[in-house]
Structures are given as C-alpha cells and as structure tokens.
Amino acid sequence: MMDVFFSTIAEINAHLVAKDFSAEELARAFCDRLQQLGPRYNALALALPKEALRKAKDADADLKRGRLRGPLQGIPYGVKDLISYADHPTTWGAKPYAEQVFDYSATVVEKLDGVGAVIAGKLSTVELAGGGGYRFASASLTGPGLNPWDPTRWAGGSSSGPAAAVAAGLVPFAIGSETSGSIVTPASFCGVTAIRPTYGLVSRHGAMALSWTLDKLGPFGRSADDCGQILQVIAGGDARDPGSAGKRFYYTPQYTRPLKDLKVGYAEVDFTDRADPSARAAFAEAISVLRAMGVQLMEAKLPDLPYGPVLSLILDGEMASIFEPLVTSGRVDELADESQIAGLKASLEVSAKDYLRAMRIRRIIQQEISTLFTEIDVLLAPGRSGPAPKADMDLNGPAPAPGARVTQASARNTPAGMRGIVQAGNLAGLPALVLPCGFADQLPVALQLVGAPFTENTLLAIGREFQTRTDWHRRRPAV
Amino acid sequence: MRMTRRTLAAVVMAPAAALAAQTAATPPLAQTPQPTDSLDSARRQIHNNAAALARFDLPMATEPAFRFEA
C-alpha cells in the first residue's frame, strides 16, 4: 500500500476500477496515515474517519454497480480548515472561532462529494488565513505548519496543512485558498503541484471571506494532471458566490496551442541575482527544460506599478469590514500572533478614500497586465526565490522574503523583473500553476507559471509536458 | 496571506543603512514586541501604503475596478 500514498489520482483510480483494493481500504489507509502523521507536521485540524469510511463504502457500492463518476471517485482528500464541512468544526485556524460549526458544506465540498471523492479531514491554516499580517509561523490554532522535507522548516502559509499533507502523502489531494500567495508559497516550499485558479472560477461559498475581491480556492495535488482533474470538478458557476464568473472548466490541455507557439516571458534576474544562491542551479536547469520543450522564452518584466501597497490597502479595507465584530468584541486578542492582532485592529482605520484609490489603481494594473498578455502568453517566475525558511523565523524581521537570503540592499539594486508577481497576479485575478523544479539545500523549490484569466489549460499543458521530462513532482520526503 | 507585507514596507521605506544596523542589533526571536509597538507599526504600515498610492499619478477619469480579473 505504501506506493499508493504517493500515487497520482489516475494511478489510484486504475487500482480502484481494477478492484486491486476497495475505496474503503484506501480510505482506512489514508485516514490512519493522516491521523498518525498529520500532527507531526501540525497539518491536521480535524480527522474525519467515520465520514470517510461511510463515503468510501458508497463509492465501493457505486463502483460495484458500474456507476462510474470520474477519476476522483473513491479518492480521499482534505480541505483547508477555512472551508466548511456541515455539522463539523470549521475553526479558520483561530481560537475565537474554535467552536464554530456551519450547518452546510462549502460548494467545493459538495462538488467533490458529487463525484464520489472521500473527505478525510480538515487541514491546518494560518489563523484567519494570515490576513492581519503574521510575524511567526506559529500563528495558528494548530501550531506552526512544519515542512515534511525538514520539520525544522516552515511549510509556508497560509495553506500550510494542504501543502504539507499532500507532500507527506497523507492525502492524494487537498483544497486550499489564496488571497495573496497562500497557495503559491506553501506549494513551492513543500514541493507539490498546485493551481491558483482565475478569480471567480471556483466558488467560495462556504469558505471564510478575507477579501471578497481577492479570495480564490484551488487544488494541491501530485501533478499538473491531477490538478487539472480536480479543477474540472470544483470549478463552475455558483449563484451563492457573488464573485462567481459563471464559467465551467474542462480539463483539455491537449487542445491548447502547440507549445512551440507559446511565448513565455521571464526575467533572467529573477532566477539569478534575485534568487537564493542555493536555488540558482535548479532554476537554471528548469529553464533549460522549458527551452527544450520548445516554448518561446523571452525576456519580460512586469509594469512598474505599486502592487504591494495596492494589494495591502484593498485587503486591509475588506478584512476590516469582515472582521470588525471580532475586533470590536475584543476577542481579536485571543489570536495567537501579536502582529495579526495589531494588523486587524489597525485595519479599521483604512479610509474609504484610500481603499477606493487602491481600487482605481487596481484598474490600471489590470489594464497594464491585460496589455502585457497581448504580447506574451505566459509569465514565468520562481514560486519563491529560495527554499523554506526555519519554522521559528521572524517573518517581519530584518531578513528579506522567507526563503531568500538575498539582501534587501542587493534586491533593491537589481532590475525589477517579475518582482511583485504574486500581488500583481492576485490583483488581476490571474491563474498560476506551481511546479516543483528541483532542490536547494535538500529542500524543494518551484516555478510559477502565470497566465491570462481562464487560461488554466495552457498552464496545465506546459506543466504536464514539464512533468513528463522531469521527476521533481515524484520526489517524496522521508516521512 | 500577507507575510511579506512588513518586509515589503521595509524594502520600500527603510534606508539600507538602517536595515543593516537593524540586522546587527536585533537577535532573532530574542524580543517579543509589545502590543502597542505592533499596533503602531501596523498603523504606520497602512499610512505608508496610503502615502505610496497618493504619489501615484492617477487620471481623474479612472474608475475603481469592479471586475476582479484582468
């Protein structure tokens, strides 16, 4: 059974259809593993073995009758604990909400349930998805998310549990969320494949709101192919999500333009001077693989715009409106992280004038990005500039971005490249695919491919070809 | 997730010399910030972000984004 823990959805599905093992046996094995190893990485918020076994038996009954519901039938999965599962705690990773129970499940859970996937547990998150700006990785009800590749390292945030659980083979796939980096960062640090979908493609009904205009839900999986299969299931219009784009997604990477026709813009400096020295060799090799695939690599850079301040003000303003009751009740002081508490309190002081100015500049950002995509099909950048930092690192401290050892002075003196691509991508609602691309100091590093809205199939086509030529996504930590 | 917000502000706002001095003077994890320090810092961050955007040349005709994908 050991290899199954690191198998792709297609591989597990083939075993289920061939009746090599039952969905119930599979669910039991994953639930045992999740409960046994999940706490080691602070990845588990709530185990759901009874529900998993019940749903697995349903899947077995359907399989026995030949009622095939697709490749996710009988496949266990986990969801970040800001996604509701009816009648079970949904804590948002935060003490003030530790007893919170919704009487309905999130749309993504309903959709996965509808194709026979088997929920195995809720996975950890940084409290309130880190919206207040946290100082330490320990800003969570479940403790710091630890990295399966080295438990002294951080798993990344805020989707710490989904990334760590997939990396450690505790679930075949998981659903996380991103407002600004919460899928890209943990996927990069944990060496798993993940998609941040286009804004509005996946319903957020039943998920904690942090920023209505920025929040997205997306899958973490073992390959680009897995992520495409999962996205096909969870995407789609939903009247219960006012941000829903009303679009479906069919995973059809075979029908995208030939790779040789795709223009991929990147900045060499992002992979050299601005990258952690330990990661540069892996990044260079990854770029050579992309070049060998035939895509047209060309130098590009993001427009010079204030992505960070715009995103922060929009996030602060929307978060303030959402969490005002938490702050005014005083229960905000129950949060684990002093910086989060302060950030939430201070957010109430964002003025309407400043919020609207940020939203007006956001429009310019969207226009500029849209223009960029008339010349380039895909943007390429490191997922993070280096490997995961220590789990006890001060994230607000003097060191630069987590994982990077590039000094702030040197970073400021290098060309812009794709600096700010996470904020820009989120402000413009762009999809991103994270692909593991090697190791630095025995820790994973990754690429991110960013496309125009609703071009997930293009990103996945590149990702799928990249993963036929490399095996980084197949590597597993010694758990 | 916004773990780089303060870092971003430091990059944008702080002179390199001050950052270098801070690197030398601040032992990692040795000090826990006082709540008032954190709140002041968070307020300052919001102020700095607003100030950064105030410097942006924004045409009067630009309406706020009302669609959230480019």
Describe the protein.
Chain A has helices at residues 9-17, 23-37, 49-64, 107-114, 160-167, 184-190, 224-234, 268-271, 280-293, 307-328, 338-347, 352-375, 408-413, 421-427, 456-469, and strands at residues 44-47, 76-80, 118-123, 146-147, 150-154, 173-178, 193-196, 216-221, 263-266, 296-299, 378-382, 432-440, 443-451. Chain A is of the alpha/beta class and 479 residues long. The two termini of chain A are 15 Å apart. In chain B, 56% of the residues lie in helices and 0% in strands. In chain B, helix 1 (5-13) crosses helix 3. The longest helix of chain B has 20 residues, at 35-54. Chain B is elongated, with a radius of gyration of 16 Å. The relative contact order of chain B is 0.10. At the A-B interface, helix 10, helix 11, helix 12 and helix 13 of A face helix 1, helix 2 and helix 3 of B.
Determine the most extensive contact between two protein chains.
A-B, 80 and 47 residues
Structural class by sheet pairing and helices of chain A: alpha/beta
Mean pLDDT of chain B: 68
- From the alpha-carbon coordinates, what is the Rg of chain A to the nearest angstrom? 21 Å
Write the layout of secondary structure elements.
The complex is a heterodimer of chains A (479) and B (70).
Chain A: H1 9-17, H2 23-37, E1 44-47, H3 49-64, E2 76-80, H4 107-114, E3 118-123, E4 146-147, E5 150-154, H5 160-167, E6 173-178, H6 184-190, E7 193-196, E8 216-221, H7 224-234, E9 263-266, H8 268-271, H9 280-293, E10 296-299, H10 307-328, H11 338-347, H12 352-375, E11 378-382, H13 408-413, H14 421-427, E12 432-440, E13 443-451, H15 456-469
Parallel strand pairs in A: 2-3, 2-6, 9-10, 9-11
Antiparallel strand pairs in A: 1-3, 4-5, 6-8, 7-8, 7-12, 11-13, 12-13
Chain B: H1 5-13, H2 16-25, H3 35-54
Helix pairs in contact in B: 1-3
